Amino acid sequence: AALREGYERFDPRAYLRNNYLPPRADFSSEEFVVPWKLRCLAETFASGEIRGRTLIDVGSGPTIYQLLSACDHFEEIVATDYLAVNREELGRGHEGGTGGCRGTPEGGRCWGDPGRIVSPSPTGSQPHVPVGFCPQISWDHSPMFLQMAVSPDRAAFVRALAHVGNLLRPGGHALLLGALGESFYLAGPARLPVVPLEESDVREALAAAGFALRELRSYVMPPALRTGVDDVDGVFFAPAQQ
C-alpha cells in the first residue's frame, strides 16, 4: 500500500532534478556517480560480448542514459515502465519536446516508431501490464538491461528477477544497476520506500533466480552527494547471465 501510494504521487521531473543534474551528474570528474554508471555501461558494451536484436530495459523510469552505450549493439531497444507519467516523459523526449529526457543525438538512435505494447509483467504482479514504447517485439530475442526495481522485501526482489529472467532467451544477459543500503528516495511529493540491499543480497538474489554473476562493481556515495533526496550508501552494477 505504501508503494502504491508513493508511486501515485511520483514526479518524474523532480526525480530527474534530484539524480541527473549536478551535483550527482557533474561531469567535471569521473568520480561522480552518474559518470561512474555511464562508464560501467560503456565498458561492458565495448567488450562486444553483449549484442543482439532486442534489448529490453525493465523499469526505465523517465531516463535513457542507461541505454546510450547499447545503441550501436542492438537493432531495437524497448524502454519500459509501469508508471504512465514516466512513459509520457519518455514519449516527450521521443517526440522532440523541450521537456523530454532525450537530450543527445546518441539517444535518438535508441528509438523505433512509438507505440504502446502489452507484455507479460516482469514482476508477476499482474498477468499483463502496458509497459512502454516500441514497435512489435519478439520476446525470445531478449538480452536485457535491468534497473533494480523497488520490491516490498528481499524475497519479492528474488521473484522479480526470476520473472524477468523468463523474458530472456537461454544464455541471455541481464545487467543490473541499483542502490545499496537505501531505505527511501524522494520524487517531488512522493517518498518511496525501498528495501535496503547489500552486495551479499544481490549475489544471493541472482543465484536464487538462476543467474550466474559475471562481475559486481560498487560505488560508495561520497558525503558531497548525500543531498537528502535519499539515504543511499552506494550503487552497484552487476552483469549476469542466465
List the helices and strands and how they pair.
Blueprint: H1 2-8, H2 12-20, H3 33-46, E1 52-58, E2 74-80, H4 84-94, H5 105-108, E3 116-120, E4 128-133, E5 144-147, H6 154-165, E6 173-180, E7 184-187, E8 190-193, H7 199-208, E9 212-213, E10 217-220, E11 234-241
Parallel strand pairs: 1-2, 1-5, 5-6
Antiparallel strand pairs: 2-4, 3-4, 6-11, 7-8, 9-11, 10-11
Helix pairs in contact: 6-7
Output the keywords:
two-stranded antiparallel ribbon, Rossmann fold, 242 residues, nine-stranded mixed beta sheet, alpha/beta
Number of domains: 1
Q: So what's the overall shape?
A: globular
Number of helices: 7
**Mean pLDDT over all positions:** 78
Q: In total, how many beta strands?
A: 11
**Strand fraction band?**
15-25%
Mind describing the biggest β-sheet?
9 strands, mixed
Highest CATH level, the class:
Alpha Beta
The named CATH superfamily? Vaccinia Virus protein VP39
| Class per helix and strand makeup | alpha/beta
Radius of gyration: 17 Å
How far is the first residue's CA from the last residue's CA? Answer: 32 Å
Q: Say what the CATH topology is.
A: Rossmann fold
For the record, the CATH architecture stands as 3-Layer(aba) Sandwich
User: Which stretches are low in confidence, meaning pLDDT under 50 for 5 or more residues running?
Assistant: 97-142
Instruction: Summarize the helix and strand pattern as letters.
Output: HHHEEHHEEEHEEEHEEE
Q: Can you give the helix content as a percent range?
A: 25-40%
Pfam families: NNMT_PNMT_TEMT (PF01234)
GO molecular function: phenylethanolamine N-methyltransferase activity
Family: Belongs to the class I-like SAM-binding methyltransferase superfamily. NNMT/PNMT/TEMT family.
Organism: Grantiella picta
